[in-house]
Amino acid sequence: MDTFGLLLHGLSVAMDPMILFYALVGVTLGTAVGVLPGIGPALTVALLLPVTYGLDPAGSIIMFAGIYYGGMYGGSTTSILLNTPGESASIVTAIEGNQMARKGRGGPALATAAIGSFVAGLIATLLLAFLAPQVVKLALTLGPREYFALMVLAFVTVSATFGDSTLRGLTSLFIGLALACVGIDGLTGAARLTFGVPQLMDGIEVTTMAVALFALGEAFAVAGQHAPEDGMHKVKGRVWMTKEDWKRSWKPWLRGTFIGFPIGSMPAGGADVASFLSYATERKCARRPEEFGQGAIEGVAGPEAANNAAAAGTLVPLLTLGLPTTATAAIMLAGFQQFGLQPGPLLFVMNAELVWGLIASLLIANIMLVVLNLPLIGLWIRLLSIPKPWLYGGIMLFATLGTIGVNPSPVELGMLIMFGIMGYGMRLFGYPVAPVVVGLILGPMAEQQLRRALSIAQGDWMTLVSTPVSAILLLISALFLIVPMIMRLRGGGEVLRQVAGDSD
Predict the structure, then answer these.
(1) 350 near 2, Cβ under 8 Å?
(2) Where does 36-105 have alpha helices with state H?
(3) Are 54 and 107 in contact (CB under 8 A)?
(4) Residue 454 lies inside a defined structural domain of this protein
């Protein structure tokens, strides 16, 4: 069956009333958490992991993807009206969007952000549908050496590419890899690092780790902050665009889409990088460069299209190779594994209906998001009036009850609290959280592929670089490790720090 046929079959799956309901819940929650500063898609998906344990796998995963898309949409609202990005990918939007709001043009800024997100999401989802099968065909030819090299690339890019310090990122990664060793060794059957605790025989639950680091850790971190809040700029006039606004926006929408999608698909990509590159491109291409910094609509249209296209691009390595390139993708990978599903080439063979239903539902989710965002802006703004103590107190209660509901064990509760405190400490001292989760999820798979490759080669370590693909992937990993160090030494650390958010 060709891609068109598979996509049409996916649309028939996505039109199921329950699937539509899950998609609607996902995009609504995603928009809400995108609007609320400090609460990103990763935190929300982590919170919902224990709640969705007993639900339909297809519906739950579609809901997670809807949250990811919705978070990209919603983040622009507070960036424009409050100058406070709801999530890290909307940092760039605040530069021009808030200036437009200050001049009474908040309505057109919100409109171009919403329509640009729709256009980009639609095109990028179609690109995902046509590109994913080609990547799957390539992935089916890879052996243990190549898969191990791919996972090394994922480890390096997630932990060492962005942030203040490569050492801190790698330290977080090694914490995750160490925790991944807890439990029964799949090869020998020996217990590792269990310390005589029976509950640790099955290893550390990814769900518990994710909820603790992202939800409890974030709640503790926010509780320790006393940051003053900026004033809000009300939307004046109609929430729509003039003919001139349309003329100035459509090209940035397209440019942002075709910048964001490939960047999101790359291991070192992500929505943050895509939005920065899009903004830089629009400044160079603008007919009125003097307006940038003063409220240029191109500076809103391009980055918003880019970060939504990047969200779709992120799903390419996740679905086809099982490699998460962002924090949210890592939590979504945990969601797949929770239902006994392993993203990768075989997912398209064994669970084709789920995959194509997911891709098709993203097309429908984009339409839902346009309907939700423009007419209901007033409702989303009211969410900002929720007191932070209530909000984060509710998050902590929800996280604890959800985790205990899935695994009612004092040991599990103890690990939840312990890892929550660890997440707070990591944020306090500038250690990224996402590499811990990535290490915990991919660590066992990387170990398995490494052992398999060495077993085939009878212990010869040179086998890891004996094929062109594995050698090139390991070389790219080395470059991703070295180049950021050089950039920091040459003064590029501030830029890297800005795109180091874990909330996407």
Answers:
(1) no
(2) 41-51, 57-82, 91-102
(3) no
(4) yes
SS3 372: helix
User: Residues with Cβ < 8 Å from 384, sequence gap 6 or more?
Assistant: 35, 36, 37, 78, 82, 232
**430 alpha carbon, distance to own chain's centre:** 19
Beta carbons of 84 and 78 less than 8 angstroms apart: yes
Q: For residue 503, tell me if it sits in a domain.
A: no
Q: Which residue has the tokens 């203040």?
A: 164
Question: What is the structure's pLDDT at 89?
Answer: 64
105 strand-pairing partners: none
Q: Are 76 and 117 in contact (CB under 8 A)?
A: yes
What's the domain range around 234? 3-498
Please count the structural domains in the chain: 1
Query: CB–CB of 369/117 below 8 Å?
Result: yes
Q: CA distances (Å), 421 to each of 5, 218, 247, 427, 439, in order?
A: 49, 10, 51, 10, 19
The amino acid occupying position 489 is: L
42 neighbors 392 (Cβ within 8 angstroms): no
Q: Which residues contact 142 (CB under 8 A, 6 or more apart)?
A: 150, 469
The H or E element spanning position 207 is helix 206-210
Which residue from 424, 428, 439, 432 is spatially nearest to 496, judged by alpha carbons? 432
The answer to whether residues 96 and 116 touch, using CB atoms and an 8 Å cutoff, is no
Q: Is 192 helix (H, G, I), strand (E, B) or coil?
A: strand
Cα 469 to Cα 78, 149, 401, 473: the distances in Å are: 44, 8, 46, 6
> What pLDDT, on the 0 to 100 scale, is given for residue 503?
44
Both tokens of 48, joined, read 């919902």
Residue 183 phi/psi, 5-degree rounding, is 120, -165
- Three-state secondary-structure class, residue 191: strand
Phi, psi of 192 (to 5 degrees): -125, 125
Neighbours of 454 (CB within 10 A): 17
479 domain-assigned: yes
Q: What is the mean pLDDT of each run of 10 residues along the chain (504 residues)?
A: 79 88 89 75 80 80 87 77 65 80 81 87 90 84 85 78 71 90 80 81 82 83 62 54 83 90 74 78 80 81 88 87 80 85 84 88 88 73 73 80 77 88 89 84 86 86 86 86 70 50 46
Tracing tokens 């839902």 back to the chain, one arrives at 368
pTM of the predicted protein model: 0.78
Q: Residue 100 is encoded by which pair of tokens? A: 């437009």
> What is the CB-side half-sphere exposure of residue 497 using CA atoms within 13 A?
9
Quick check: 364 and 82 in contact, CB under 8 A? no
Residue 256 lies inside a defined structural domain of this protein:
yes
Q: What pLDDT score does 499 carry?
A: 46
What is the rounded CA–CA span in Å between residue 76 and residue 309?
15
